[in-house]
Design a protein that fits this description.
This is DUF5753 domain-containing protein. It comes from Streptomyces silvensis. InterPro entries: DUF5753 (IPR043917). This protein is α/β, with parallel strands linked by helices. It has 9 helices and 7 strands. The protein has a 7-stranded mixed β-sheet with strand order 1-7-6-5-2-3-4. Strand 5 and strand 6 form a beta hairpin. The longest helix is centred in the last third of the chain and has 16 residues. The N terminus is likely disordered.
Amino acid sequence: MTREELSRSTGSSHEWQGSRSLRHAGLESKQNELAELERSSTEFRYLLPSMVTGLLATPEYVRASLAGTPGDQSKAVAKKLERQAVLHDTSKQFTFILTEQAVRWPYLPPASMAAQTDKLTSVSRLPSVRLGVIPLRGHMPVAPLNTFTVYDTRMATVETRSGVMVLRDQHDVAACLAEFATYEGYALFGEEARRQLGAWGQQFHS
């Protein structure tokens, strides 16, 4: 069943984009789709429990995230890095929430992870960006299960290892917004976030 057939079978409010169909369409095609969403939306919310998203990633991190994926990786890497320019668009507002695991997972060698942490600190100072981190301490009676992104209040995407679920039903989008607000309450922002990122970055040098 194609993506379009599955979307019709489940209704226009839900769409499943399987990993295999995404690979078949090509890496660059997916990047173009994301770029169009970024052009047509104004407010973005990203919950990142396990990895850094491409908009916040260094070139080395982006290349590592695509390693082993079939297709022309060089074009996909270039497109991912090109998309980062949207963070400088002051007509838009981005809120990123990263768990400590997302920041500190040793996806790259230590020196490269330190550079990635520095990149997060730098991006957090952009006028259009509000970047929060959640240290793994204290008591948090909730746990994020998946990476998700909310575009304005009209659409959310939920990522899993096997694909991406696109949600357009307003009840589903509202549920994502409510969950995001919960994690905002646990996150550090501004100078507190930058101090925490600095401390984590130093640990990669030790």
